[in-house]
């Protein structure tokens, strides 16, 4: 399944190889869009130990599928590391889509686990926030549900259901 994500990785995902400054600009733009569109997410930002921003993830599938994106981890509003996100899948699927997602690490231990892993995989411990909850989102109402909260937004394409479960995040040097 991981091999299915390799062709997507080769496409550069619109970020190309321009390095950290390009990723930083896309991260800033993505965060501005999210905070403007879903003002309640600022409450998450203010309470989070760290925030991983994936400005553009491209996902495609025809039997075999995969996704790829690059982004940055911010702690206290400052970029501390860069990451890629990849996933592979098999099954009844057809189509492609692009989306942005942000992971809010709501506890110091969740952030430490993420940063110390050789490759962190998103799993069932993720709490998803639907786009329509962004207006009324308050951190104290959902932080007890999961130490990591995912906000998936800005979807476009013809593939149903962006899910981050099984996505592997790996530290990169842009």
The major beta sheet can be summarized as:
6 strands, mixed
Low-confidence region ranges: 1-16, 132-141
Mean pLDDT comes to: 78
Backbone shape: globular
Domains counted in the coordinates: how many? 1
Considering DSSP H and I runs of 4 or more, what fraction of the residues is helical? Answer: 25-40%
Q: Kindly estimate the percentage of residues that lie in beta strands according to DSSP.
A: 35-45%
For this entry, give a set of tags.
single chain, 5 helices, 6-stranded mixed β-sheet, 174 residues, 6 strands, disordered N terminus
Brief digest:
This protein is 27% helix and 43% strand. With 174 residues, the protein is α+β, with helices and mostly antiparallel strands. Residues 87-170 form the Ysc84 actin-binding domain.
Descriptive overview:
It is a single chain. Helix content is 27%, strand content 43%. The protein is globular and about 40 Å long. The longest helix is centred in the N-terminal third of the chain and has 18 residues, at 20-37. Strands 1, 2, 3, 4, 5 and 6 form a 6-stranded mixed beta sheet that branches. It has helices at 2-10, 20-37, 41-47, 108-116, 139-142, and strands at residues 50-75, 78-105, 120-121, 126-129, 148-157, 168-172. By secondary structure, it is an alpha+beta fold. Strand 4 (126-129), helix 5 and strand 5 form a beta-alpha-beta unit. 36% of the residues are buried. The protein has 5 helices and 6 strands. The chain has one domain. Pfam families: Ysc84. Residues 87-170 form the Ysc84 actin-binding domain. This is Lipid-binding SYLF domain-containing protein. InterPro entries: Ysc84_actin-binding.
């Amino acid at each position: 399944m991981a091999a299915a994500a390799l062709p997507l990785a080769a496409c550069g995902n619109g970020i190309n190889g321009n390095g950290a400054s390009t990723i930083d600009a896309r991260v800033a733009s993505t965060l501005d869009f999210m905070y403007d569109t879903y003002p309640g997410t600022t409450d998450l930002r203010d309470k989070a130990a760290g925030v991983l921003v994936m400005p553009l993830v491209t996902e495609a599938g025809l039997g075999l599928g995969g996704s790829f994106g690059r982004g940055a981890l911010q702690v206290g509003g400052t970029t501390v590391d860069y990451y890629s996100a990849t996933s592979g899948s098999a099954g009844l699927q057809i189509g492609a889509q692009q989306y942005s997602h942000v992971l809010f690490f709501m506890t110091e231990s969740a952030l430490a686990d993420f940063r110390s892993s050789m490759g962190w995989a998103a799993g069932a411990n993720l709490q998803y926030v639907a786009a329509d909850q962004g207006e009324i989102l308050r951190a104290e109402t959902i932080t007890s549900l999961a130490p990591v909260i995912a906000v998936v937004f800005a979807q476009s394409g013809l593939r149903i259901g962006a899910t981050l479960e099984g996505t592997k995040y790996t530290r990169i040097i842009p």
